[in-house]
Amino acid sequence: MFHNRQITLAARPIGLPKESDFRLVESPVPTPGPDEVLVRTLYLSLDPYMRGRMNDAKSYAPPVQIGEVMVGGTVCRVEQSNDPNFQPGDIVVANTGWQDYAAAKGKWMRKLDPSAAPITTALSVLGHIGLTAYFGLIDICHPGAGQTVVVSGAAGAVGSVVGQIAKILGCRAIGIAGTDAKVRYLIDELGFDGAFNYKTTGDYRARIKELCPGGVDVYFDNVGGAITDAVLFNLNLHARVSICGQISLYNLEKPEMGPRLLPLLIVYRARIEGFLVSDYAPRFGEGMRQLTTWFSEGKLRHEETIEEGLENAPRAFIGMLQGKNTGKQLVRVST
Question: Which domains, and CATH codes, for the chain?
Fold first, then answer.
């Protein structure tokens, strides 16, 4: 335990981040203070929200400053503990960022039972990803049996869970993804009723109409842009739209001009609502109980794309922003 590798923000990206926007540095391994726990990172979660934290503007959370460790959820092993609730060897889920070691208050960590589920699920289907899908679909969109749910970014971490929950609730699930392999995965592995590859589809609006002949009752949006425009033209009366992410816009150097579609909300008497999963923190217990039940019953599957080595986290992050992952993008930091 001689040094702590950390990946810090070296420069604010212009457009799509570059590996040079990050820097791998070394620092002493921290010493835990009162009520703190020293943990070693096993897995690091990479998520689209991190792109916004790299900008020099506060939105829903403060930006990462130049020279600071990149933020991120982690699964860790306890190395030392000054908190009586944790012992060396415990596996915990935390938010300790892109580094090998961290010292943090035990109250901000949750102990995991490795015998109950793979520990990586705490960063995906049985963690913030699953909770995002659960509340963003059920609480905002209120899907009913027989209704049609369209999901953009459907082969990603959140989208893949949304589609599966829709099927559990008796809905038709239609996915939008970026490769033919992902389309097959959605239909053959996850049970979606239909899907299409937006990169090889010329007319999104027509394709959505073809796959949703009865219209769209619920749209779970991870992508934004032209795909979302096309879905809005296919809404049913009283449709509900949940805005979870806008990944197609995150790396634009100039704002993208698009059609002004708010009049469609009047025509369809539709409702659009954005959210952050942290809004539902008081109800996380409810969500976790239901997700855990579905998972134990075999109704929720999860796919992971795992990059090896902390030093390769920037490359994996950039690839995730380009849609190169299927399911949850993780980095295995140590074993």
Answer: 4-123+302-332 (3.90.180.10), 128-278 (3.40.50.720)
